[in-house]
Each structure stands twice: as C-alpha cells, then as structure tokens.
Amino acid sequence: MRISTTILGLVLISGIFSSCQSETVKKEKTEIEKTHLTATLAKDIFALPIHCLQIEYPNKLGQVLASEVDLKTPKVLRPVFYGCYDWHSSVHGYWSIVKLMKQFPELDANGEVRKVLNQHITADNVIIEKAFFEDKNNLGFERTYGWAWLFKLQEELHTWNDPDAKRWEQALQPLVDLLVQRYKEYLPKQLYPIRTGQHDNTAFGLSLSLDYARTVGDKSFEEVIKEHSLRYYKQDVNCNLAYEPSGNDFLSPCLEEAFLMSKVMNKQDYNAWLKTFMPVLFDKDFKLEPAVVKDRTDGKLVHLDGLNYSRAVCLKGIVKQIPELEALKAIAENHIAFSIGNISAKDDYMGSHWLGTFALYALAGE
Questions:
Q1: Is residue 359 classed as helix, strand or coil in its secondary structure?
Q2: Are 233 and 203 in contact (CB under 8 A)?
Q3: What is the pLDDT of residues 69-109, one digit of tens each?
Q4: DSSP three-state, residue 110
Q5: 232, 176, 182, 227: which is closest to 203 by C-alpha?
Q6: Per-residue DSSP letter, 290
Q7: Distance in angstroms (rounded) separating the CA atoms of residues 75 and 201
C-alpha cells in the first residue's frame, strides 16, 4: 500500500505536535511555581508588625489575677512585648522585623524602627517582663508556644552581626535563660505530648526551640529536646490527615510531628519511621488542598491561613530529609500561593497582627 507524502507529512507533524504537547504537560507537572520573598513582599510583611508593635489595644492578656494589684495595663505589665494583640504575637512580630531588617536593610532606611526597638528592648524593661514570668500565678504563661518564639527571636539576633542586635540579645538573655530552664523542668513532667492544631502543640514548640539550641550551641538544651521528642513520638504510627484540619487550626498535628522528627532522627531511621507514621506521603497520588477562610474578621477562623503557611514549612522540611518526596514541594508552594494574597495592612486586625510572621516563616526556608 502506498501512502501519499501529504498524508505522511501530516502524520509526522501530528506526532511531533503530540510529542511537544506531552513534553509541555510533563514540564508543567515537574516545574514548581514558587512564591519568592521579593523586596515588595518583604515590605508588605514588614508593615504588619511595625503597624501593631506599639498598639496596646485590643489586647488579650491571658494572665491569672491574684489580686487587684495585678490589674495593670499591657504596657505596664510587659513593656517590651505589649503590642500586636497578645504576648506571643508581639514576640514573633519582633522576629519578623529583625529577620527582614537583616535581609532588607532598606526597609528601615531612616532608622525609625531601630529607634523603637532600642526604646523597647532594654535591660530594665526585660527585668519587668521576667518578673511577670516569675509570678507563681503565671509560671505556665505562654508555655510552650510563646517561649519557643522568644527563642526564635533570640536565635535571629544571635546570628546578626549588628551592634544594636547584640545589645538586644544581651538584654533579652536573662528572660531566655529563665524559659530554657523552665522548659527543661517541664518536659520530664509532661508525660504525654499535646497534639492540637493550635498554640500548645508540643511538636511545634520543640521544633523552634531545637533550632535555637543548635544555633547558639546549647548542647544541654538540644539533648533534652531530642530525648523527649523521641519519647513522645518514636512509637507513633498511622497519623491520619483525614481528620485535619479542625476549624481553628493553624498547625497540622501530623505534619508538625513529622517535621520535628526530621530534625531529630538520622535520614535512614527517619525514612523508616515516616513510612509507618504517615505512609500516605509516599503515595504518588497524594494530595492536600489548602484550607479555606470564610470570615477574615473571625480571630479563630482566620487561623486557617496560618495553617497553609505552617503546612508548607513542614512539607519542605520533610523533603530536605527525604529528597525522593520532592512532589511535596509543589503542595507546599500551592499552600503558600493560596494565602499569600491576604498579606496586607488592610486585612482585618484579627489576621494582620500575626499572619505576616507565618508567611515569612514559610518563605524563609528557601
């Protein structure tokens, strides 16, 4: 049978076109669109803690009152960390500011932000903050979420070769030392980890604290964290993502645990552990959709934007330990892209006072 050259040509062209389409689809599947921390995005994130650092009200104090003597304004009680709605948000707001000033010094070209930090982070002010934590009625205040963010702030200051940063680090160190000791005393008494998707999640606090311990070379603190992380989680199996998220989550109980253990175990042991703890991550068809916020003025519902960022951190951290799970990176980037458009000073205060930190946390690991 003879085939005309015209038909043959069409067949060849069609084959080439199909091949190109196939390569395009393949390329789309393998390439990951990343949200990068550009100067513009950094400026947007920077504006959020700057805006609220000196806003005293509304304020969620979260303290225990022993008598009327304890009824004081936030600024009197906590002259360093009184802004941004609550203590922990103020602390990690400082972390965001410091981290961004290190990378983008032009954000504070006129030195106004340094001036505020120099006024707030002083030895005298930290003495007052420390006294609050030493009150017997508030020994568990901000345990362990706020503690961990203070360590993260101190880690950032420690790694910044800047005269002001060194002075702020020195001023904060007594409070940091107190909470490190408090953490060491607490962990042996905490027989069971807290597995919620909010502030008191044990794995999240341990993860940030471990970063600090390793950066500053506190071997004693590092070993305590590793010991209790393994005690809490080494025997865990079959964590089911189908039950996540809960309506108020900004952390994933399953993924926070998996991320922490990626820092604690060697690659071989971690690979074996993760296959029993979250086997679904090794499924080639694994999918995880970003969480949706329906009301941005609701302080609890807006937590779900934070969940998208913290999930991304965990997924990328897991891939660092197990590179063959590279497909998780695309899921992580999708989560960031889904919520990053909400980063704005025009967002409701229930989100704007803290979500910039979590966006930066998700982007900073690049």
A1: helix
A2: yes
A3: 999 999 999 999 999 999 999 999 999 999 999 999 999 99
A4: coil
A5: 232
A6: P
A7: 28
**C-alpha–C-alpha distance, residues 160 and 158, integer Å:** 6
Report whether 73 contacts 49 (CB < 8 A): no
Task: For residue 302, give both structure tokens.
Answer: 């807006």
CA dihedral of residues 362, 198, 250, 138 (deg, nearest 10): -60
From residue 126, alpha-carbon distances to 63, 118, 236, 345 in Å are 18, 12, 40, 29
In this structure, what DSSP letter does residue 65 have? P
Start-to-end CA span in the chain (Å): 60
Spatial CA neighbour of 339 closest among 266, 270, 273, 289: 289
In single-letter form, the type of residue at position 322 comes to I
Q: What are the tens digits of pLDDT across the range 187-214?
A: 999 999 999 999 999 999 999 999 999 9
State how far the Cα of 208 lies from the Cα of 203, in Å rounded to an integer: 9
| Distance (Å) of CA 249 to CA 40, 82, 196, 359, 360 | 29, 24, 8, 16, 18
Task: Find the angle CA(233)-CA(213)-CA(148) to the nearest 5 degrees.
Answer: 70
| Neighbouring C-beta atoms of residue 146, cutoff 10 Å | 23
The chain-wide mean pLDDT, for the chain, equals 92
CA distances from 352 to 53, 154, 294, 328, 355 (A): 12, 23, 16, 28, 6
Express each pLDDT in 309-341 by its tens digit: 999 999 999 999 999 999 999 999 999 999 999
Three-state secondary structure call for residue 241 = helix
Q: What sign results for the dihedral spanned by CA atoms 68, 73, 78, 84? A: positive
pTM, to two decimals:
0.91
